[in-house]
Amino acid sequence: MQQCTACDPIGQKALVQDQCDQVGFCSALVGPVNLSAPGNSTASYQERLSRLEGDKESLILQVGLLTDQVEAQGVKISGLLSSLEEYQHKLKYTEEMLQQELLNRTSLESQKLNLMGEVSYLKLKLADMEQNHVHGTERQHKAEVLLKELRFLKDRVEVLEDQKSQYEKKLKATKGVDPDAGQFQRGGLRATAGPRLTRTPESHSSSRDMNTPFGQWSKEQVCGWLEDYGLAQYVNLTRQWVDNGQTLLSASPQDYEKEMGIKHPLHRKKLQLALKALSTKVVEKSSELDHIWVTRWLDDIGLPQYKDQFHEARVDGRMIQYLTVNDLLTLKVTSQLHHLSIKCAIHVLHANKFNPHCLRRRPAEESPSPSEVVQWSNHRVMEWLRAVDLAEYAPNLRGSGVHGGLVILEPRFSAETLALLLNIPPQKTLLRRHLASAFSSLVGAQATQEKREYANATGHVPLTTTAKVRPKKLGFTQFSHLRKKKPDDTADYICPIDSGVVPANGVFYRPYSGMRHLSPLLDRQSERQEKIDVVDVVG
């Protein structure tokens, strides 16, 4: 055998088997050896026997080598078994970690559900707090109205007491009995000096105010009237200038600025309107609404950010119907959308004869008609959004100027405009489609059709949330015509009092039949391009 037996166990076995066969063969040869054979046979036997002995020794060596190899393989097998046990231990540990991770994930899911429940609870609590705030505001408004009525009744009582004292004086004079000059009497100077401070502009705290023309009022009466009218800061200069009421009636706006120190243009306008009403004796329902009511009205139409400017300018109900574009710019109202909001809100007041409670703040009707929606306040529109499953976007309408009058009366105000104000992303098409459907149901089929026709008209300019209003700059050719114009010709009222059909970009806009008397009295030719410029400001 010539092959390596150490590397071939099968070969080793074959070699051992071969050697055993040779030994058997030799034994077989030796067995029948004839002792009487010649000497050469014995020598041959001895040679074979020695060769077999060598093979035996070789086999012993090979068996030793095989034993060493078997032991080495046993050591390797033991190492593999230990590695297998280690891997099994790691696998068990990994399974335990995976199970722990699953438990942690389950715990996080439960915590997430708990947090969502808490968020829902907080949203409901916030809505409840907002409703309570609205109720508190209404209660405060009612208290202020009652206080105003109480002051009015108090003034009436003072007037009656004054008349009573005059009748008593006349009665005593007819009887020949003179009253004691040093005795205090109700209705005298000391008695009437105090209540004048709480007199409202239209209350007429004395009989002379009611019966005497304003031109015949004394200096003190004029100064007292200015205090009552919210212009008390100009009383000192007025007392030094005026002789009677006729001084104010015959003065010009330049005289008001020079002699009385009235720098604020809206204060001059307020004084002019009041003097005009006193001289013509025209009683307007809007004159009953003071500047405090106007600030609450701004809350109702969704423009509370302008309350300080309106309060500082002492804008009252009478001034509202004579506001111009430049007046709003003076009040820092530059947004085109806010101009339209104020326009529509003023028209709602006109339609309701300046009823101070015409705007609705609470949801009362289940299926409101457009004539009812037009009287919705900003808060009521937010409640409608919550009712149509858009509660998360409702707070975005704060300070937007969106109220029922704007939604119904402005033909350019559409569902797309509302989506922009609510900050609904354009990619949420299903949500915008839902809003468009709810908006169409709210304004009615006829108004929806007319809004669509107006949007498709030639030269239509979409209503954006960033458009600004600026007064148009006068060219050199226009300065020559300024002296020829009268003040009434240059008046650019936000909501004109006269009614009629107004052109809208070449298309005559008519209110639909359900709101025929509540149409916006607006000039639709690109918001009077001949007097103002509309500039889109991005960002």
From TrEMBL:
Keyword annotations of the record: Coiled coil, Repeat
InterPro entries (alphabetical): LIPB1/2_CC, LIPB1/2_SAM_1, LIPB1/2_SAM_2nd, LIPB1/2_SAM_3rd, Liprin, SAM, SAM/pointed_sf
Region Disordered: start-end pairs: 177-213
Coiled-coil features, chain-numbered ranges: 143-177
Pfam families: CC_Liprin_beta (PF26022), SAM_1 (PF00536), SAM_2 (PF07647)
Any single Gene Ontology cellular-component annotation: presynaptic active zone
One Gene Ontology biological process: neuromuscular junction development
Highest taxon listed in the record's lineage: Eukaryota
Domain SAM: 217-281, 294-352, 376-407
Alphabetical list of PANTHER family matching this protein: LAR INTERACTING PROTEIN LIP -RELATED PROTEIN (PTHR12587), LIPRIN-BETA-2 (PTHR12587:SF18)
Family assignment from sequence similarity: Belongs to the liprin family. Liprin-beta subfamily.
Name under which the protein is recorded: PPFIA binding protein 2a
